[in-house]
Amino acid sequence: MTAVPRQIQLDVRELPTRWYNIIPDLPEPLPGPKDPDVGPSRLQQLPNLLIHECLGQEMSSERWVEIPEELRELYLQAGRPRPLFRALALEKALGTPAQLYYKSEFYSPTGSHKVNTALAQAYYARKEGKKRLTTETGAGQWGTALAYACSLVGLECTVYWVRAVHRWKPDRLGLMKMFGAEVHASPSPRTEFGRKLYEQDPNHPGSLGIAISEGLEDAGKDPDAVYSLGSVLNHVLMHQTIIGLETQKQFEKIGVYPDLVISCIGGGSNFGGFALPFLGDVLTKGKKTRFIAAQSQVAPNLQGEYRYDFADHAEMTPLLKMCTLGHTAQMAPIKGDGLRYHGCSPILSLLRHLGYIDTVAYPADEKHVFKHALTFIRTEGFLPAPESAYSICCAIDEALKCKETGEPKVIAFNISGHGFMDIQGYREVLGFDQESTSDEKRRTLLGI
Ligand SMILES: Cc1ncc(COP(=O)(O)O)c(C=O)c1O
Q: H/E element holding 158?
């Protein structure tokens, strides 16, 4: 055994019993959702569309929210708590004095952190007597997580999946169906809003904003159904804090505290889940940790304007105060498609606005991101989801800066999912489909 712990475990009895709600600790009151000046009230519609318990959690001022016992059992069934790894092999390959630690959400049964809120939402929906959940999905990770959660608690699940991605992920589609979900490429002819776009162009690539509109319309028309969102909203981030709370306990065990907390960000559930407990320490305990959100240049939403905007394309949601690129923004598809969303969670947007979160956006060709991911794959041996590759890339960039300055910073990052259903994306970006790629050429590509 090495003196330096390579893996920091938690016992099942150490699974957190409460989620952390950062709202009461924010430096300024969080601006709430509001209705637009014209048109019907979206706010009044919410109780018909969303899970009541989640709606209650949305603006709760309770700092700690109890995780129900039955849900904790489901978390155990899903393999929580998950280990924190020290990336000793990666550190060695980079020759950095930095200490790199990564949390292993890639052990999730469906492949990502999304199960943490999917299980919570499915559990509450069933408790409230609902029979079906509807939702949107972009990369497909959220749709799979909700299909899985519905299957475990005994609910039906309908998924509207952004057509551009639906088309090139047949295995993920198969997995959703194995969990019993009904899946529609979006825009679909199944909803009024989708039909309009579908009839104009049956090959319409779709967007997360459009898929949200379809899921909302579907749930709104069926009293037995309710809509479930996989990111952005406060309660979703709160459910995900189980990741950061476990990580804090793991760091406590080895007497280490991170100088830098890094994760990729789309709507914000992964970044929020990992970083908010540490951000809470900055806000209430005077910790000096720095936070970096890794994004794509096709959707650098945290670098957008901080203003009220809709969360969906058809303007069916209330307005949320967030950093946004505009709810009808066109964003080119990328392999890390889960990062392609126009707006960022109101909580994280406020913290960004107040200067607590830095952001970096990587080029759309994803070569820099995947090149660093490959270094990670070849040294640490885990295959990250393309979205998680952005976290790895940022952590490696920061570790290389430490190599220049000689600073032994402690860097923590979350690997939000595995990439076993995304190998085609890696092959395309890294050119592995060309038979002639020599080992030497690959090593140059790797930079090690
Ligand atoms: C593996 C993975 N990581 C991260 C994200 C980004 O989403 P969010 O910002 O909500 O965590 C996604 C979204 O689909 C994802 O699938």
A: strand 156-162
